[in-house]
Specification:
Number of domains: 2
Structural class: alpha+beta
Order of helices and strands: HEEEEEHEEEE
CATH class of the largest domain: Alpha Beta
Number of helices: 2
Mean pLDDT: 90
Strand order of the largest sheet: 1-2-3-4-5
Radius of gyration: 16 Å
Helix content: 10-25%
Largest sheet: 5 strands, antiparallel
Number of strands: 9
CATH architecture of the largest domain: 2-Layer Sandwich
Shape: globular
Low-confidence stretches: none
Amino acid sequence: MVTPPIEEFLDDLDELLAAKAWPALDRAKVTHTSGHDAVRVVLPHQDDPRAELAIEVHDHEVIVTYFPEHLRFTLPSEALRFVEMLGDGRVTLLVKRRVFWNAIWSYRDNLALPFNKTLEPWLNVRPRVEKLQFGFTRE
């Protein structure tokens, strides 16, 4: 069921998508799926399915997922700004895959300190470090 706060966020998101010229966003495949108390919006990338963004909108929180990370926002305006940052390619993930743990650090705007750090247990056969760039711009 779409409530007024969810509808307001979706309208603001539609305005953002209309205002941005993101050439790698597959606008024809953007989906809105309504659930019991939330709406899930998927913004697909034309070239890289791993770079798609998923936005889950509830009455009192918005969850933005950019694989393999997700962030919860209690203010819809902050979530919208973050979606804009992701779309503009201003967010970078550093994924450190260790033998027993993954460390995921999220950076924005080329700042030296990460704005989010996540540790998760995960068995890795091949330890490595990956740098993942998000965005719907083409460079």
